[in-house]
Amino acid sequence: MIRFDTVNKYFGDFHVLKNINLEINKGEVVVVIGPSGSGKSTMLRCINRLETITDGELTVNDLKVNDKKTDINQLRRNIGMVFQHFYLYPHKTVLENITTAPMKVLKQSKEEAEKVARYYLEKVGIPEKADSYPSQLSGGQQQRVAIARGLAMKPEIMLFDEPTSALDPEMIGEVLDVMKALAKEGMTMVVVTHEMGFAREVADRIIFMDHGQILEQGKPADFYANPKEERARLFLSRILNH
Amino acid sequence: MDIAGALSVDHLKFLADGFKLTLYVAFISIVLSFIIGIVFGTLRYANIPFLSKVVAVIVETIRNLPLLLIIFFIFFALPEVGLKLSPTVAAIAALTVFESAMLAEIVRSGLNSIDKGQIEAARSSGLTYIQTLVSIVMPQALRRMVPPIVSQFISLLKDTSLCVIIALPEFMHNAQIIYAQNINFIIPIFVVVAFMYFIVNYCLSLIARRLESRQA
């Protein structure tokens, strides 16, 4: 479904992604971990072309993401994205936040879009916040709205870029619960996170990145029990024993 | 000082005529420069190849010229190339040109102040660049722009008095004619003139404050 074929990316002289080869299948939950600055987020952001790749080939559903002929807006409506800092629209209510893209991009009627929005708000557990503004919500609630906003486009793929890193510890659980439920329903998910418990429980595959390379990947049980790479071992010991 | 003589009915009527023209010229210029300012500011913000550069050159040139020079140019220089404008039209044209450039910069910096993450969130949901600009970036930016835009409008209203130099019969111009007749009229007339400018501009700032507190 998502395929990186010897993808490289540079920011100026800085080689951010080095020869990335990766294939993600439909329904798979892939968790990307690694030290900060290792290129995890950049790799994720290439998938919906928030970043462009320098060379190699990246396809989503056999469509070349960086091809000029590819209608990027068409591609993006099929890929939901959740950001570390939520990026809800502060001037719109929760309901309007969720209905904007379905109405403008999918040309849904207001009634239809609101029905869908309320369904997903129910699903993320905050139906009563439909008419609130983002500033009236806690961080965890805002992030759940952001997830509902992504889901309302009925995407095939959801990308999560450190979705819990900006949250107070007591709010992380509520967001992870929503993501776990989503994974169980068979959504294709690519998640950049430091939440090792979540990775262990939900991921089909863990990808460890460092210095722009994928150093190791495998099933969570194998990876955590017996990381092969020295750097992965070091990273895990730092993150788990503190 | 001759207060009764200065503020005779005829004089007050004459002042009122001037004041009406001041408000008229300011109002038309505000509406026109607001529209042009939004368009130019957005074009410069949007980084369109070539076009944004052209707009930038125009805006920077005008912004760095004195308004007085622009008024002179439009009223005295344009007739030399065959474009003769009445004082009222020349005043509106000069104020619009100048204030559009000032507003364009306010609009551009307002748009720039919106977090790039807002744009990424909107674009990643499939909205086009234009849709993102119109329904996500611009509404947020406009709220932030209210205070600087209103102070620009206040400047504009005060700057209409510069049109004295092209004999536009506006408020300041008519006031001058009255106090030029008699030195004892100067202080009363100045007080009235100052008071009127203050009232209108103060109302504008009150409106701005209302708009500002409503969004908070």
Automatic annotation (TrEMBL), chain A:
Classification via InterPro entries: AAA+_ATPase, ABC_ATPase_HisP-typ, ABC_transporter-like_ATP-bd, ABC_transporter-like_CS, MetN_ABC_transporter-like, P-loop_NTPase
Keyword rRNA-binding: no
Protein name stated in the entry: Amino acid ABC transporter ATP-binding protein
GO molecular function, one term: ATP hydrolysis activity
SMART domains in the cross-refs: AAA
Alphabetic keyword roster: ATP-binding, Nucleotide-binding, Transport
Keyword Protein transport carried by entry: no
PROSITE patterns: ABC_TRANSPORTER_1, ABC_TRANSPORTER_2
Classification via SUPFAM superfamilies: P-loop containing nucleoside triphosphate hydrolases
Pfam families: ABC_tran
Family note: Belongs to the ABC transporter superfamily.
Chain ranges of the ABC transporter domain: 2-236
Gene3D superfamilies for this protein: P-loop containing nucleotide triphosphate hydrolases (3.40.50.300)
TrEMBL record, chain B:
Main location: membrane
Annotated compartments: Cell membrane
TM region(s), chain numbering: 21-43, 55-77, 89-107, 185-208
GO biological process: amino acid transport
A single MF term (Gene Ontology): transmembrane transporter activity
Ranges for domain ABC transmembrane type-1: 19-208
NCBIfam families associated with the record: HEQRo_perm_3TM (TIGR01726)
Family (UniProt): Belongs to the binding-protein-dependent transport system permease family.
Protein name: Amino acid ABC transporter permease
